[in-house]
Amino acid sequence: MTDARGNARPNADGTARHAPGTPCWVSLMARGLDATEQFYGALFGWEFRPGPRPLGPYVRAVLDGHAVAGIGVLPPDRRLPVAWTPHFASDDVDLTAEAVRSCGGTVGVGPLDADDAGRLALASDPSGAVFGIWQAADGAVEDFTGRPGTPAWNELTTFETTNVAKFYETVFGYDEDPVVSADLDYVTLRLDGRPVTGVHGVGNALPRDRGPHWTTYFTVADTDDAVDQVLHLGGQVLGGPRDTEHGRVATVADPEGARFALVRGPR
């Protein structure tokens, strides 16, 4: 059965799966695969295994036997930014891609098969922020979170939240939970009451060289130690560390410039 957003409803048989719209994967498109593996392997303790190759060389980052992220290689002739991209679960990528288009977004890649692992598409919202849509072949996606080296949160930085949050709400069925403040334009998007992602409107403070973009937060055991490791490995510190209500956070970049955040949860 399919709902109006182009997402098939979960089966009633209790099969474990991510509900449509749940962040279920993060991937990085890099220029140098070997150097990128060395950086993240040292920082997060990841090991790497060959992955599906619908878009060229691709590896899965593995932690304690669990796949936690993917790293691919940008074609040398493409002037695309090196960036982490969150992927959101769908029970039918083709229908979700149509919903993206009908709501003013753009589908840049796919939908296409990722070998026998599933089906994917890469899209951008009306403001230009890039995200992925992922349909696992067996309908189930492993949920391995909360450990150092695993993704903890994805947050969109954009011009304003009203129209952009409405786009994601319509495509994925989120409920909006805005912060009521004259000084902060922020919306938490929820599924079945659970917070799944955030949208932060910063207006003219949005960096001109980046435009609207998603940031992936990775859990670490100690934010300050992880920041020191980033610097030691040739990365950059862009902000923090700072204490927040969600834990101690720092924004960093790998040696190729891909930005991400580190967070240690409250103790």
TrEMBL record:
Superkingdom of origin: Bacteria
Organism: Streptomyces cellulosae
Protein name, UniProt field: VOC family protein
SUPFAM superfamilies: Glyoxalase/Bleomycin resistance protein/Dihydroxybiphenyl dioxygenase
Domain VOC: from-to ranges: 22-136, 150-265
Family matches, as Gene3D superfamilies: 2,3-Dihydroxybiphenyl 1,2-Dioxygenase, domain 1 (3.10.180.10)
